[in-house]
Amino acid sequence: MNGIDSSDENEKMENEVCCLIDDGTKCTRVAGNASFSKRIQKGISQRKMKLSLDSYARSQFICDYHKSKIQSARSIKRHQRTTISRDSDSGSDSESPEVDFYSLQVQTLRRYKKFYKVSTRPGLNKAQLADIISKHFMTIPVKEKEVLAYFIYSVKHSSGIQNNVKGLD
């Protein structure tokens, strides 16, 4: 209608490949809608990632794989900084247990988010979701005496998960 054939644009986008060179090898994945900027280039060099821009690339678009790899590296670096600052603030590790939410599956993180009704923006990747959940997890108050008393009671009276499972059979 406006003189531009959208099918030609779609074909061009499908033929575009990622503009990055990963550890000396040209990436051959289909480029997404994320573009390689100076800010991203600065972040890559600061994190000493083995990514560089292909000077012969036709576009500045990167694939979804490299986009998520860059975002994950950014989130992990942020996580390490907060862990280091938290360790220097508190003298002992016994006050707050260290839980690695990055090793959990995305579905588990989403289940946690839904159970505790943690509000987030839509479309978060795993690293961003793990960051938000780890911050929320640290805010949950735990009454250690009650937890220990309940645990000891359940062990003494053998009212654990095994009895609940046997009751279902």
TrEMBL record:
One of its GO terms (biological process) is regulation of DNA-templated transcription. Keywords: DNA-binding, Metal-binding, Nucleus, Repressor, Transcription, Transcription regulation, Zinc, Zinc-finger. Belongs to the SAP30 family. It is found in: Nucleus. PANTHER family: HISTONE DEACETYLASE COMPLEX SUBUNIT SAP30L-RELATED, SAP30. InterPro entries: His_deAcase_SAP30/SAP30L (IPR024145), SAP30_C_sf (IPR038291), SAP30_Sin3-bd (IPR025718), SAP30_zn-finger (IPR025717). Pfam families: SAP30_Sin3_bdg, zf-SAP30. This is Histone deacetylase complex subunit SAP30-like protein. Residues 104-156 form the Histone deacetylase complex subunit SAP30 Sin3 binding domain. One of its GO terms (cellular component) is histone deacetylase complex. Residues 74-97 are annotated as: Disordered. Its main location: nucleus. Residues 14-81 form the Histone deacetylase complex subunit SAP30 zinc-finger domain. GO terms for molecular function: DNA binding; transcription coregulator activity; zinc ion binding.
